[in-house]
Amino acid sequence: MPQTMKINVTVNGVAYEREVEPRLLLSDFIRHELGLTGTHVGCEHGVCGACTILFDGLAVRSCLMFAVQADGHEIVTVEGLAPDSEHMHPLQEAFWEAHGLQCGFCTPGFLMTLKPFLEQNPDPTEEEIREAISGNLCRCTGYQHIVDAVKLAADKMKEAAS
Amino acid sequence: MKPPPFAYHAPTTLDEALQLMAEHGYGAKALAGGQSLIATMNFRLSIPSVLIDLNRIRELDYIEPAAGGGLRVGAMTRHAQVEKSELAAERAPLVHDTMPLIAHPQIRNRGTFGGSIAHADPAAELPAILRALQGRVKAQSARGERWIDADDFFVGLFATALEPDEIVTEVQLPPMPAHSGWSVQEVARRHGDFALVAAFALLSLDDKGACRDVRLTFCGVGEGPALAPSAAAALKGQQPSEQAIKEAAAAATNDVDPPGDVHASSQFRRHLVKILAERALSTAAARASGKEV
Predict the structure, then answer these.
(1) Whether residues B209 and B230 fall in one domain
(2) Cβ partners under 8 Å of residue A22, min gap 6
(3) How does residue A54 score in pLDDT terms, banded at 50, 70 and 90?
(4) Does A3 lie at the interface with B, CB-CB under 8 angstroms?
(5) I need a surface site. Which of A64, A155, B9, B36 has the fewest CB within 10 A?
(6) Which domains does chain A have, with CATH numbers?
(7) Which residues in chain A have Cβ-Cβ distances shorter than 8 Å to B5?
């Protein structure tokens, strides 16, 4: 039997305790152990950004971490973004309204990258937006509508805050 | 695309980590930010039998002033922390200016200063900066500690002077020399990708305005961070005129033998070496003479 370790992780506010092998990637833990399949897996070597999650509030690639490293830490995935089942997060609304997605595979990674970015930088320039999403690949949109969606989301978030 | 099995240890103190490194030696790998190591494990290019995870060791996470105006960076300090550090901006402006060019925001939230140095990727920026600034690396093992100068630390492709039981615990950058200027110039296919070539210059002037000392280094041009001694020699003692800088930049192409690969031919990289050297040296010279750049 391979070595397993007990870990305690909080994901989207829910505490989980699981036995895992050390080699289990955090992305696979989130998808296969917890069934939260909103976190997508693209390249599995840190290039595409599809698996981006929040780890203690910071955007990181979950394919470049092991689940055992998350023991005692707090994670937010795209499933934890919306405030409730009736409403979407302003970022999600903006992506919808500004056509910030086509096939949607990359979208969770973009959203999780952009949430802390807009919280820290509520009024970003286009250049700052493009730099913020430089670690996320989208093969459909050509990025222009994503940039538009981020500007729209920034406006929505500012409006909600005022 | 899944890593092979390994035994996992997550020590919470440095002493504990050093004991584990001593115990496991060659088969063990220290896991810092993991932004290169885990990717290579996913590809099974790297197959350590034991992983010693340094992420729970708080004592290696700091940015502090060093005596005389230098900077001490704990090995487990994340790139994002260095990027935001006012102390680093003030004392190591070349590092500060380069931080946004290192990978993407998600990688910088996790990747570490010491990890990048220890990994010694020939395309990575920090090893070349460490050589440009003549920094040094603190290596610790259960046997003790030693300091290794940047010029001696990088010995080849992904290879360093570290012994199998040693880990990098601190990186020290000396103070900026008087009347000095710096510059980083990089060309990458996409913002945040590994540089095709990047040039790093540190240049100081004497009281007559001639170049007193010049350090020019590159990443992306060979088996490790490359120093350009002929370029430095060509400029030393000269006024940093446009012509003198052009000649030094041309000399830099004799200091490197860049490889060709799928991203760029050897010839194109050599062309970039010249162009980026020229830009880096002239920007550094302008800063050294007090101009805002």
Answers:
(1) yes
(2) A3, A5, A66, A68, B5, B6, B7, B8, B51
(3) very high
(4) yes
(5) A155
(6) 5-80 (3.10.20.30), 90-161 (1.10.150.120)
(7) 2-3, 21-23
B221 and B132 fall within a common domain: no
Looking at the fold, whether B23 and B103 belong to one and the same domain comes out as no
**Dist. CA A54–CA A62, nearest whole Å:** 9
What would the two tokens of residue B103 be?
């990978």
- The number of beta carbons lying within 10 Å of the beta carbon of residue B154 is 25
Domain extent for B212: 181-288
Mean pLDDT (chain B) is 96
B70 and B42 in a common domain: no
Alpha-carbon distance B218 to B99, whole Å? 16
Residue B200 forms part of a structural domain: yes
Contact B100 A131 (CB under 8 A): yes
Contacts of A130 in chain B (CB under 8 A): 191
| A59-115 per-position pLDDT tens digit | 999 999 999 999 999 999 999 999 999 999 999 999 999 999 999 999 999 999 999
CA of A65, closest CA in chain B: separation in Å?
7
What are B139-178's pLDDT values in tens digits?
999 999 999 999 999 999 999 999 999 999 999 999 999 9
